[in-house]
Amino acid sequence: MIIDSTPPLLDHYRALLDHSSSLETTEHNSHCSGVAMEECELPLIDLGGLRSHDKWERLGCAKAISKASSEWGFFQVVNHGISLELVKKMRKEQIEFFEAPFEYKATSRLLNNSYRWGTPTATRPNQFSWSEAFHIPLTKVSEEDCYGDFISLREPMTEFAAAMSKLARLLAGVLAESLGHRREVLEDICDESTCFLRLNHYPACPVSSEIFGLVPHTDSGFLTILCQDQVGGLQLMKDFKWVSVKPNQEALIVNVGDLFQAWSNDVYKSVEHRVIANKTQRYSIAYFLCPSYDSIIGSSREPSVYRNFTFREYRSQVQEDVKKMGYKVGLSRFLVEDESIHAMLKATKTT
């Protein structure tokens, strides 16, 4: 008897196709096209510069991080302090983990009961992601009872999560300092209970030219650090077109999230990105640096583009939009101009 480890993605995708109109299906196929205009190499930054005894080399490295965050919203880092041996060990354990039977992954409450697959809220094919993942808070990573029969994953995952957390806070500090703030300013609001490590698996897809591995989106936190394999599939929006990111075995990918764009008053850019499904399966691990739910996210300079809001409020709005409309609206919900317009309309109605 063959036990399948892959979720019933194709069944759900076909069901969405069957319930879509011919117009929606045509739009979907056009929007889902995995053909990017070009392959790009993200700005590559050697973080060894931050440890240099030369002041100007340190400043040059910090400037490169800030520039890439402003112009691309994405960059790659090498000499990041996470050993290739740890990455290989983590990848080996991750592959074995996802090879467990689907029913076991779905019912065993592994990794804080965080298993998810496909897109439960999808009502159309272009809202569906051909992937499965575990999304676990940092505070739970070291707990033995999270791992079930896969206790061998605990040690490398705990070490990997700590290293990614340290790196994310270093980079966030550099970006804060580049805006004229002390490096520790974000340390005060970032909380391990809301920072996540996400294990991603994109199974081989028989309709890969027509479907997303992960739908177009921006990340909601401050920073995301991605450790990916060499299969490829990550694409980002650059100069109003999709470009494919060339994998680099030695580098980690860093991207700015919505909260950092808001906090920086649009100096740093949270850029839309997606993953295109492949006929070859793909693995990645993402770390998300986030604040506590009740932290106030205010712009770091005036005049402010966005009104003050909490991370809890932001997440709730995103979830509400996805539930109602099938997609994330994001930061445009929190523009100061929107408040001014609403206030003016309200005043007009009462006069």
Total strand segments: 15
Distance, first to last CA = 75 Å
H/I helix tally: 10
Order of helix and strand elements from N to C terminus: HHEEHEHHHEEHEEEEEEHEEEEHH
- How much helical structure, as a percent, in the residues? 25-40%
Mean pLDDT: 90
Radius of gyration: 21 Å
Domain Fe2OG dioxygenase: 191-291
Organism: Ficus carica
Keywords: Dioxygenase, Iron, Metal-binding, Oxidoreductase
Pfam family, one: 2OG-FeII_Oxy
Topology of helices and strands:
Layout: H1 9-18, H2 22-32, E1 38-40, E2 44-46, H3 55-71, E3 74-78, H4 84-98, H5 102-107, H6 110-113, E4 115-117, E5 132-137, H7 154-178, E6 196-202, E7 212-217, E8 223-228, E9 234-238, E10 241-245, E11 252-256, H8 258-263, E12 273-276, E13 282-289, E14 296-297, E15 309-310, H9 311-325, H10 336-350
Parallel strand pairs: 1-10, 2-3
Antiparallel strand pairs: 3-11, 4-5, 5-6, 6-13, 7-12, 8-11, 8-13, 9-10, 9-12, 14-15
Helix pairs in contact: 3-7, 4-7
InterPro entries: DIOX_N (IPR026992), IPNS-like_FE2OG_OXY (IPR044861), IPNS-like_sf (IPR027443), Iron_ascorbate_oxido_reductase (IPR050231), Oxoglu/Fe-dep_dioxygenase_dom (IPR005123)
EC number: 1.14.11.13
Catalytic activity: gibberellin A1 + 2-oxoglutarate + O2 = gibberellin A8 + succinate + CO2
